[in-house]
């Protein structure tokens, strides 16, 4: 077991309304293995425990945790998501962890991959590399992060005073300033694919949106992408 917890985290303000939440979380739990815990952050007012014996068994066994967001949290746009993720609260909840795997309902890990998330633990931030047409850095929809670094940045810097629109690109720029351990584009695309195609990565974020011409190849490699929802605001 790791010396400090490894957490895979999904943040959904209305998790009960998401049809693929249960199968996706159980899939992540299986691929990641018993050294990981999964945490769902959601609003208490909208949460109902799903009637899924497998999900309830994982909750009772401690592999899946349900934690509640501050009551006024809004996550219904990319602006709200970036504003929330660049404030200290979420990172202070996660700071004890060795690494955080942050994922969304439109991201997935591929069970056939010979790689593991742990293979990227030397980096402070890694996600699908962003095509230069859309910005710089790594996409945050499926990303591995050092929560201690992210908590420090969120406490000491102000996203709202920056020119950045998205939290992942802002955190990337701040991580570069601090000399964080960051992967090359080649290494990052082995971790995850979004706007830049790479064959047989460990995971995907929004493949139907960004790689629609490659979906036959993607489905052959990673049929789990069939669980994903369509295009999302975040």
What does this structure look like?
- The protein is α/β, with parallel strands linked by helices.
- It is built from 9 helices and 9 strands.
- A 6-stranded mixed sheet has the order 3-2-1-4-7-6, with helices on both faces. The protein has a 3-stranded mixed sheet with strand order 5-9-8.
- The mean pLDDT is about 95.
Task: Please give the structural blueprint.
Layout lengths: L5 E6 L9 H12 L3 E7 L10 H8 L3 E5 L9 H8 L2 H7 L4 E5 L3 E3 L15 E5 L8 E8 L1 H10 L10 H11 L7 H7 E2 L9 E3 L1 H4 L4 H7 L13
Helix pairs in contact: 4-5
Q: Any descriptors?
A:
3-stranded mixed beta sheet; alpha/beta; 6-stranded mixed beta sheet; 19% strand
Low-pLDDT segments, ≥5 res = none
Largest sheet: spatial strand order? 3-2-1-4-7-6
- What proportion of the residues is helical, as a percent range? 25-40%
* Arithmetic mean of pLDDT: 94
Instruction: Give the radius of gyration.
Output: 17 Å
Order of helices and strands, N to C? Answer: EHEHEHHEEEEHHHEEHH
By DSSP (H or I, 4+ residues per run), the number of helices equals: 9
**Beta fraction of the residues?**
15-25%
Structural class: alpha/beta
Terminal-residue CA separation: 33 Å
- Please state the overall shape, judged from the principal axes of the Cα atoms: globular
| Main sheet record | 6 strands, mixed
Number of extended strands? 9
């Amino acid at each position: 077991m790791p010396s400090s917890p490894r957490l895979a985290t999904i943040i959904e303000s209305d998790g009960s309304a998401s049809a693929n939440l249960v199968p996706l979380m159980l899939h992540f739990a299986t691929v990641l293995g018993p050294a990981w815990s999964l945490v769902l952050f959601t609003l208490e007012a909208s949460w109902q425990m799903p009637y899924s014996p497998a999900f309830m068994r994982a909750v009772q066994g401690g592999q899946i945790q349900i934690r509640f967001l501050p009551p006024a949290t809004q996550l219904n746009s990319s602006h709200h998501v970036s504003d929330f993720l660049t404030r200290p609260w979420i990172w202070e909840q996660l700071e004890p962890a060795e690494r955080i795997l942050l994922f969304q309902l439109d991201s997935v890990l591929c069970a056939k991959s010979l790689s593991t998330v742990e293979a990227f633990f030397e980096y402070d931030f890694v996600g699908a590399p962003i095509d230069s047409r859309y910005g710089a850095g790594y996409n945050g929809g499926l990303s591995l992060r050092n929560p201690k670094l992210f908590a420090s940045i969120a406490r000491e810097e102000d996203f709202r005073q920056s020119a950045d629109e998205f939290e992942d690109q802002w955190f990337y720029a701040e991580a570069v300033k601090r000399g964080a351990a960051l992967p090359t584009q080649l290494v990052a695309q082995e971790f995850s694919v979004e706007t830049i195609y790479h064959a047989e990565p460990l995971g995907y974020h929004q493949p139907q949106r960004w790689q629609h011409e490659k979906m036959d190849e993607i489905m052959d490699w990673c049929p789990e992408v069939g669980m994903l929802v369509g295009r999302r605001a975040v």
